[in-house]
Design goal:
62% helix, mainly alpha, D-Maltodextrin-Binding Protein, domain 2, 4 strands, elongated, 2 domains, 13 helices
């Protein structure tokens, strides 16, 4: 009579439950998985909500002139007061975009600096436009009679704030940390304490152990994602473009991301013999991506020669995908380039893990 294979469902549930319980009781895991990202969100969520703001220095004795009055009515212009020498010092240090010097007997002079060429160009355009309008008025030219007129039409749209960029990046960060660092340290601990050896004394299969460990981390990642989004919505008015549907797409992408990144955690756990070896290996995967893969700032801000290499990093691919969901309102079925990229990284990670991972 053929021997019946043992049921793996109960061992799977037991492994998943106790792995999740161990993570929730680990203070470091809870801090870096929940508190640490929320600290970053609380700090960086306060920045970048005012849009374009150009600081132009105007000496205090020029505050009654018509150019000053016109610039003061422009919402994007922040007028900085002070004496001429103080303002030029701030301009040299790059703290303001330009300094406007005026007097009653001469034409105004705009001082700009090479310290911030982008803002200097905007300030030049703004002041130049104001001066051009004043020249037309003083020349007696009727603006309505000019042959070329600019027509301005405002369409509806939503404000893109820094929190809308930053919060999805933090989801990618906790996903990568949980998938690699947490997985590697967790499995190494189980091997060193001979827990895995005892489990293998039972009919439990190795795949059941891996599935149980992965399921525990899946629950943790989903909880982290929900907490981050919840804080973003209630504390910083983070916008879910399509409401609950967008939230479901984020959670689904988080599951895909976990499956893609988990192989790297298994690879580190296979190569490293102890925690001292695992730490630098895990940081080698996590830290460079955390810094350059679009978590804190857009990849477009990097030098053009390095952008192609950064854009194919696993975290960069995930960040691009999740921002297409949160910012553009796209669904998973519109993210095929990113999904293919995550699949390629997953195949590579699990291939490396299969050649290096050891149970003892």
């Amino acid at each position: 009579m053929k021997k019946r294979a043992p049921n793996q469902f109960r061992p799977f549930l037991a492994i998943a439950f106790y792995a999740l319980r161990a993570m929730t009781r680990n203070r470091a895991t809870m801090f870096f998985g929940f508190v640490f990202p929320l600290m970053f969100i609380a700090v960086f969520g306060l920045f970048g909500n005012n849009g374009l703001n150009i600081s132009i220095g105007i000496p205090e004795n020029s505050h009654s002139g018509p150019i000053y009055q016109a610039l003061s009515n422009i919402q994007a212009v922040k007028v900085v007061s002070g004496n001429s020498q103080e303002l030029q010092t701030k301009l040299f240090q790059g703290r303001i975009a330009a300094v406007l010097l005026t007097d009653e007997s001469a034409s105004p002079k705009l001082l700009i600096s090479q310290s911030n060429p982008a803002q200097a160009a905007v300030a030049t355009s703004m002041v130049g436009g104001v001066v051009d309008k004043m020249n037309l008025h003083l020349s007696g030219v009727n603006v309505n009679s000019l042959p070329i007129k600019l027509s301005i039409e405002e369409i509806s749209g939503r404000t893109f704030r820094f929190i809308d960029f930053f919060l999805p990046g933090m989801i990618g960060f906790v996903l990568l940390t949980t998938s690699i660092t947490n997985t590697a340290f967790g499995l190494i601990f189980l091997k060193k304490t001979l827990v895995l050896k005892r489990v293998f004394a039972t009919p439990t299969k190795g795949m059941t152990i891996l599935l149980g460990q992965g399921t525990a981390r899946l629950v943790m990642v989903l909880a982290q994602t929900l907490v981050i989004i919840g804080v973003g919505i209630f504390a910083f008015k983070f916008n879910l473009v399509h409401g609950l549907w967008t939230l479901m797409q984020i959670l689904l992408l988080s599951v895909i991301g976990l499956v893609s990144f988990l192989g790297f955690g298994l690879f580190v756990a296979g190569v490293a013999n102890d925690e001292n070896t695992a730490a630098p290996l895990a940081n080698l995967f996590v830290l460079p991506q955390f810094l350059v893969a679009g978590t804190f700032f857009p990849i477009d801000s990097l030098p053009s020669w390095i952008q192609p290499a950064v854009n194919v990093l696993p975290l960069a691919v995930f960040n691009t995908a999740i921002r297409k969901i949160t910012v553009e309102g796209l669904a998973i079925n519109h993210l095929w380039p990113q999904l293919v990229g995550l699949a390629i990284w997953a195949v590579l990670a699990y291939l490396l893990a299969s050649r290096t991972f050891r149970w003892e």
